[in-house]
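ok so i was messing around last nite and threw this chain in just to see what happens. nothing serious, just curious
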Amino acid sequence: MKHLFLSLAILSNMHYAHAQTPATVNVPADSITFAVIGDYGQNSTEEGQVAAMIKTWGVDFIITTGDNNYTFGSRSSLKKNITKYYGDFIYNPDAPADLQCHGKAAQEKINRFFPSPGNHDNYTKGMKPYLEYFNLPGDKKNYDFTWGPVEFFSINTGKDADINCCDAPESKWLQSELFKSKTPFKFVYFHHPPYSPGEHGNATKMQWPYDKWGVDAVLSGHEHFYARVQDKTAEKPIYFICGASGNTHLYGCNEHPLDSTRFKVSCDHVHWGAMKVRATAHLVIFEYYIATEPERPIDTYIIRK
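result:
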């Protein structure tokens, strides 16, 4: 497998979709385009700018790296923090009537929004508002789904990522599901970054053996910036931090610098934005766009198989 930094012509997408149930999501497609957002749910001008940009991309779905609903994950803030901006992507017929979305996804009866919980989503006891609102596979906290050539694995890292590898239920579940996966690419996403040069620093308990488990990319949030982190000691995975999609307080990129002899870091901490990812069975293109200059990506990373 080669990892290349270069520009590529836009992939021709051939999409196929069918109605889903909460128990499983497995959508066949030759190629997919999806967005990644994180630390976004604040009902801010910046959240609106990022959401507007994403809506021009024609994505198949959106995944999130947590902190979907500031400040305390409350039921009363779900609609203004999430539905207002991303209701067209959410199909949640099992939610209470006053929380159901009625946009494009509801009309199609296809959910196109797959969040992972952040620490702010976990502040409400049992994450009850989060679990009532979203229509997700499995137990909705730790789940996987397949769309086209990628299988996605979402993990709840709780309030402070206090999860021990490799005897914790979450890590056992992930390892087992990865072992069974037959897709060309495998992406894991959750809130607390295993490696971060930012204000919070490394979530050391999330430094799992992703390379040995066959993971191609790990995506997280928590730090309010965008970063791409490469571990020079392992061929894969590539690590991304996408946490500048709406929270108005951005963090600095060099609060806890990573060892430059081991890590290569690219970081932007002065803009709000989101990732656009395109994938086929042989190629994935990760791009990061900022809302104030959406014409071209400010960072691109490519995986070939």
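not much to say yet. The helical segments are 45-55, 78-86, 104-108, 128-133, 169-180.
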